Each structure stands twice: as C-alpha cells, then as structure tokens.
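Per your request, structure below.
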C-alpha cells in the first residue's frame, strides 16, 4: 500500500512539473487596402496583413505607411485579460495544463494622400529655395502653424 502511494505521488509530481502553462500573445494588423508597411514600437514587422507576437501588455505605437496614402500613426492599448492579472497570472502562466492563446486584431482604413495643387506648391518651393540661397535657418512649425523655437501657452 505504501509503495502505491509513493508511485502515485511521484506520478503526480512529474505531471505537475511537465505540464507547465503557456500563454501565446499575438497581434494582427490589417489595412484596407492591404500592403501597407507596418511598424510596432518603431520596429518594422512587415506588410499588412501581418501578425507579430508580444510579451507585455500596455500601449503600443503603431504606424502604417503606403505610397499614395496618408501615414497612420496611433497609440493602441493592449489590456491584459482578467485571467492574466496578478495574482492569477502566476498560476495561469506556470501551472495551467494547456496553452492559452491571446489573439488581438486591429484594422485600419487608409485614406488617400491629399494632393497639393501645383499653384500652392510652386510658391512654397520658391520661398524655400530663396531662404536656402540666403543661408536662412527656418524653424519647423508647430501643430498650430506657428514657427519658432518656443511654444506659447
């Protein structure tokens, strides 16, 4: 009777040690139209549709670029599911007997690039040429269109 109990305990211990849990996290980016170059946290991951694995939850910087379309840049928040919040996450990731898959999908609708009329483009180009020839340094404009080194609040 004692040897049966020992074998049972040994079998249970081996099962616990070999059946460790695992969480696979994957994010899929799709664009309409397809074929945009996708960057996550400034790392190129490929052309849409594309999937990439991730380790940590939180905010991801996503950028999509495609010729003829406006560049899309967003901050996408990836929240952990309830079963991966402390203290449950320790048991799920280490002792759950099966693999858990957390699949996230993000879709983007790309907008055609705005075409600047030549009547607006040529005067701007001429002004920049004149400034370069005069060795003038032109500060970048802020989002309100004001130029200068300091923003007024």
């Amino acid at each position: 009777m004692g040897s049966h109990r020992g074998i049972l305990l040994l079998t249970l211990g081996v099962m616990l040690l070999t059946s460790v849990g695992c969480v696979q996290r994957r994010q899929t980016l799709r664009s309409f139209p397809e074929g945009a170059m996708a960057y996550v946290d400034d790392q190129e991951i490929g052309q849409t549709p594309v999937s990439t694995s991730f380790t940590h939850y939180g905010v991801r910087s996503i950028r999509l670029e495609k010729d003829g379309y406006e560049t899309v840049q967003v901050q996408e928040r990836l929240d952990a599911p309830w079963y991966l919040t402390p203290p449950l996450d320790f048991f799920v990731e280490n002792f759950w007997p099966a693999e858990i898959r957390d699949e996230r999908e993000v879709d983007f609708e790309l907008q055609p690039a705005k075409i600047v009329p030549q009547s607006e483009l040529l005067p701007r180009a001429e002004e920049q040429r004149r400034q370069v020839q005069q060795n003038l340094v032109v500060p970048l404009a802020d989002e309100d269109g004001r130029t200068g080194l300091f923003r007024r609040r």
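The two ends are 82 Å apart (CA to CA).

Regards,
D.
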